[in-house]
Specification:
Blueprint: H1 3-7, H2 18-33, E1 61-69, H3 73-80, H4 86-98, E2 104-114, H5 119-136, E3 139-147, E4 157-168, E5 182-187, H6 196-206, H7 221-225, H8 233-242, E6 245-250, H9 255-259, E7 269-273, H10 281-290, H11 294-300, E8 305-311, H12 316-325, E9 330-337, E10 341-345
């Protein structure tokens, strides 16, 4: 008789360690506590999490939800072991979308799935999620850690995020977009979290690897490409509350070409001057090393602009000054036009 038949199989024998999961929850509780804000009613560990909208200051709120992941950028994090920033990416991809509706992010939940739970790796990822929440003013109020042997190769994991925000009724964006509105572009911190299947292909073709010296910075190539997505929440909300912001577009997959039209009324488009900002070195290298055409760059990557605001022309200067005071690098990209689509002048490359 085998030991298993004498003693009985356990969940741990099947590859799932409940004790490790409990240890992870204990380790991340301080990180989650850092994210507490008005409205939070319960901590981690319950079957659900509660949030009080009145305590958060809302009288007649509309809720907005968003969900996203980090995509194949995770492959670089897994291969290099540099997992500390992908939690920030996860939060940013969700909350940067929420603010485009005019909503303040209130709370965040994460889903972390792996074949075998490695406590230190998981904790570093979730601590990064908490940091992203702190930077964007939302609370990490729950999540799920799924240990699923046989579903993921050793060392692999996946992430998904879920954010809920709110606004007072009547404050929804986009609103009142008009021909002549000025486009203000906020600089990105790099590639952010879109286009990494193409990034990885370019790196393969270049003959470099993640440990190689970066051709465009002082870091290794892997570290440079893992620069976290910029969080625009507090800065953009400050501009919205100042008045004159008619629309915001988060520049994710689809780039400037496809994301800006999403917030425009039918019959309107935009004219953009590609000389209005300097293309960051990472994008110059990708374009050169991959032989990527300008049009492909503009519809695959953010190309150095992570968020675009369409604002009243009479308030563009004041809003630019406000955003710069908030730490943003602002470029005046162009304006809203009466012709559908995105037209470009000048050269990106």
């Amino acid at each position: 008789m085998t030991d298993a038949k004498k003693n009985g199989l356990t969940y741990a024998d099947a590859g799932v360690d409940i004790d490790a999961g409990n240890a992870l929850v204990d380790r991340i509780k301080p990180a989650a506590k850092r994210t507490n804000r008005s409205g939070v009613m319960s901590g981690l560990g319950g079957f659900g999490a509660m949030f009080d909208l009145k305590a958060a200051g809302y009288d007649d709120p509309i809720l907005v939800g968003a969900t996203d992941g980090v995509g194949t950028k995770l492959r670089i994090a897994i291969d290099t072991g540099n997992v500390d920033g992908v939690g920030i990416d996860l939060v940013a991809m969700c909350v940067n979308d929420l603010i485009c509706q005019g909503a303040e992010p209130l709370f965040f939940l994460d889903y972390f799935a792996t074949g075998k739970l490695e406590l230190d790796v998981a904790a570093r990822i979730i601590e990064g999620i908490a940091e992203g929440c702190v930077r964007s003013g939302c609370a990490l109020i729950g999540g799920e850690t799924a240990e699923m042997p046989g579903m993921y190769p050793e060392g692999d994991f996946d992430l998904a995020g879920f954010a809920v925000g709110a606004m007072e009724r009547g404050a929804t964006l986009p609103a009142d977009v008009a021909v002549g509105d000025v486009l203000l572009g906020l600089a990105s911190d790099g590639v952010h979290s879109n286009g990494y299947s193409l990034v990885r292909r370019v790196v393969d073709h270049s003959g470099l690897d993640w440990a190689s010296d970066s051709p465009f910075s002082t870091e290794t190539l892997g570290a440079a490409l893992l620069t976290p997505t910029r969080l625009y929440v507090k800065q953009a909300l400050a501009a919205v509350r100042a008045g004159g912001v008619h629309a915001l577009a988060h520049i994710t997959g689809g780039g400037l070409t496809e994301n800006i039209p999403r917030v425009l009324p039918d019959g309107m488009g935009v004219a953009i001057d590609l000389g209005a900002w300097d293309l960051p070195p990472v994008f110059k290298w990708l374009a050169e090393a991959g032989g990527i055409a300008e049009a492909e760059m503009l519809k695959t990557f953010n190309s150095g602009i992570g968020m675009v605001l369409a604002v009243d022309a009479g308030q563009a200067d004041a809003l630019t000054a406000l955003l710069e005071e908030q730490g943003e690098t602002v470029s005046r990209l162009g304006e809203v036009t009466a012709t559908e689509g995105v037209s470009y002048t000048g050269a990106l490359l």
